[in-house]
Amino acid sequence: MKDRRLRPRRSSLALGLDALAIVLAVLAVKAPIPRGWIEHGYANAFFALLNRALVPVTNVVPFSVGDVELLVVLVAVVAWWVGTMRRTPRPRRARVAIRLAAHLIGYAALGIVLFELLWGLNYRRAPVAARVDYRNARVTDAAVAAFSERIVGILNANVAAAHAETLDQAKLEAAWQPVVRRLGDNWDVAVTRPKFTVLQPYYDAAGIGGQYSPFSFETLLNAEFLPFEVPRALAHEWSHAGGFTDEGDANYIGTVACLRSKDPLIRYSGAFWTYYELPEKDRRRLHLDRRVIADFQASRERFLRHYQPKLFAFQWRFYDRFLRSNGVKAGVASYGFFLRLLVGTPLDADGLPVVRSKR
What we know:
mainly alpha; 2 domains; 15 helices; 3 strands
């Protein structure tokens, strides 16, 4: 016969462990860590080891590992709650529900700790703007106009060839790896192969294009993307897989990689995603090939097919708060900063960003 006097002790111990998990989560997010250790001890050591060990494993799996993880967690939580409440006499259910909620918060706190260890500490890396020879003074109207002309020229020159081929991921990787190496990754990143998710209806409705999952080391792309949208979107997510968390930085890396490629589809995709970041006055004065205009119309129709404005606004606000809580002060506005980086940072003869000299 079990001693009922042990139950309060076990309950107190469990609540104590929940409190400890919350403290660990706060420390994982807020504790000051030297940026040098983040760069060399974490991003280019521990995280690099995880990437190279686990990405090849998840790449072999034909479905989304993250979907399975989510399903297992949801089923486990529901079974835990329902089973516990059924075994609990009615007079005690309210108290037990409060205790279960506390335990759930404790498990969520452990999830935060795991997130920080698997990927989140990369948010503390120096941003790309601090790594490259970026100067705000270079971002003049004339420089932006010249860059706009370059983007429109790439679109018009490559539209026919881009539609005549399919994506060769090896070519995209060959253009992308030197960029992240130049920007601080001193290891060959194991790139993720794109997968689709059972959450595709939510992706469509909320306007989500893709996601890198740090819990499953894989990239999820919107299955509705048109072929010419995929290369830059994939290079963006690869940048996250390489430890560059800021959305503007991932946009910059993905765009530089695409524009330096000699492959027409990859170059076209990089220019395609950049076009609507150009000033409206430059877009008005520059002429687009009618086939390029048709691609933009097709992309807009694809986006609006299942788009739900309220869900999109909710997702945008949620992600903005998430980014800000992880040290990205601009929040979702960081997506657009990459245009200033593109114009204000010189490239070398290989199309790679010139980095700041170390003194």
